[in-house]
Amino acid sequence: MVNYVRQHADYGLGNFVNLTPTIERMWLKTAKKVKVYFESEYIRDCFSDWPPIEVLSENPTEQADLCTSMINRANDCPDYEYTWKRYFDGKPRKALRWDKPMAAIICGCANDEKRHEKQPSIEAYKYIIDKLKENDYLVFFIGTDHDFVKSGLVDLDFDEVLMDNIRVMEWGIAHSDLIVANDTGLHHLAGMHGKKGFILWKDTKLPKNKSFNDNFFISHDWINDFDRWLKSAY
Predict the structure, then answer these.
(1) Are strands 53-55 and 216-219 parallel, antiparallel or unpaired?
(2) In this predicted model, what pLDDT tens digit does every residue of 206-225 receive, in sequence order?
(3) Where does 102-233 sit in CATH, by number?
(4) Among 12, 40, 47, 205, which has the minimal tally of Cβ within 10 Å of its Cβ?
(5) In the chain, where are the structural domains located?
């Protein structure tokens, strides 16, 4: 999305922090680390292990697409919002705390005529998301934009949504600490990655549709089972 980001020595820590929501979203949209060249050693040391970026050791000769000198001189919105609007619609989210574990929420169905067979209740998902938040998880929705709307989960409290393309969705699953899903294709993809998961099973056939992943717990009593499962998951 950008060739690289430059942190100018004339602009301090706060200026770079204001770029972090945009940098993080670029990373999540592309599943590729954003390259950053730091002119200030102490700011580089502060962010050297931040997951969204790749720290460049050599000074690039080409001009950066995004840099700390891109500030809002008109003073009509915060700098972090000014930068965000150059690349994304809507309001910027603050950068996430990546020292927290990550939980992926999946609720998909390729055929809307069969959604009633696969779709767990919104109440169950809301309960599970609230419990994950109580246990200090970052909670991501992973799926298509169609599933996000049709599932009814669009109004729930997600830290981030990954649904632009299958590569980004696969990346999100691979980096998750645990999965909560219904019987859908992405739950099988999570199984291929060997993820621990809580599967909200509804009316599709078992054992026919079961994943080969033995780390999945299949539940028909979603709310009552989840607390016990989460306590035993780690």
Answers:
(1) unpaired
(2) 889 889 999 999 999 999 99
(3) 3.40.50.2000
(4) 205
(5) 5-85, 102-233
